[in-house]
Amino acid sequence: MAERPVAIITGGSRGIGRGIALELARLGYDLMIAHFDFDEQGKPDENNAVEARKKAQTLGARCEAMRIDVSSAADRTKLVEATKSAFGCCHLLANNAGVAPTKRLDLLEATEESFDRVMNINLKGPYFLTQTVANWMIEQKKSDPEGSYRIVNTGSISAYTSSPARGEYCISKAAIGMMTMLYADRLAEYGIGVFEVRPGIIKTDMTKVVTAKYDKLIAEGITPIKRWGYPEDIGKAVGAIADGRLDFCTGQVINVDGGFHLRRL
């Protein structure tokens, strides 16, 4: 068994995923970063993954990066097998990969093609990757009973906040909430904690197209803490889980949203 704990982070090359990866590196984790980036011309792009890997290495982590499509069963198998080959173990899975609809369309005009794409990446992918990694963690527990194993899912305030122009995204994130509860229930007997981190308005590539809208809403007080969230805010929350500080809180949702979830008069 490796001396350092190992984490798999999907969507780990940029944005929230990179924030999680770098925080875990600071905490002494070695990393397997999975990504599926494209450049502006729609061609496969390794630049973000290379940069994330270098930053993790400067923090003392051994870090591997590989391109995989989390919605593909073959690619999920490839990711797990590559992690086994490179590190021999996995102590934390961060299901972070996710997409918004390619085009925002009103609920009455949305397409099945967009629905299938979003659900396959945001829900089916992490659901079955968790199944595979959880079974591997159970096997590891047999030879390492004192080892700590955890799974963290990246949800969204869209799980309960209606956005009729991206309904498929909202539904996928609502489902992540139930997925977290299901796996937390099923894996508790093995001492494997499962958690959801629920970001609010976070400064990433995904929110770049609505920057002006959210700048205005934040200034007007849509969140009690009047600022954007940043990937490192999510990283710190995942870090608290990875550090074992919430091990008696399996199934818990951690809102990282500047207080957006509060109902105020």
Notes on the protein architecture:
The protein is of the alpha/beta class and 265 residues long. It has a single domain, classed as NAD(P)-binding Rossmann-like Domain (Rossmann fold, 3-Layer(aba) Sandwich). Helices cover 43% and strands 14% of the residues. It is built from 7 helices and 7 strands; from the N terminus they run βαβαβαβαβαβααβ. The protein has helices at residues 15-26, 47-58, 73-87, 112-143, 167-187, 211-219, 231-242; strands spanning 6-10, 30-35, 63-67, 92-95, 149-154, 192-199, 253-256. A 7-stranded parallel β-sheet has the order 3-2-1-4-5-6-7, with helices on both faces. α5 (167-187) links the parallel β5 (149-154) and β6. The longest helix is centred in the middle third of the chain and has 32 residues, at 112-143. The protein is globular, with a radius of gyration of 18 Å. The model has no long low-confidence stretch (mean pLDDT 97). This is 3-ketoacyl-ACP reductase. InterPro entries: NAD(P)-bd_dom_sf (IPR036291), Sc_DH/Rdtase_CS (IPR020904), SDR_fam (IPR002347). GO terms for molecular function: oxidoreductase activity, acting on the CH-OH group of donors, NAD or NADP as acceptor.
| Rg value | 18 Å
Helix and strand succession?
A: EHEHEHEHEHEHHE
Main sheet, how many strands, which sense, barrel?
7 strands, parallel
Gross geometry = globular
Q: CATH-wise, what's the superfamily?
A: NAD(P)-binding Rossmann-like Domain
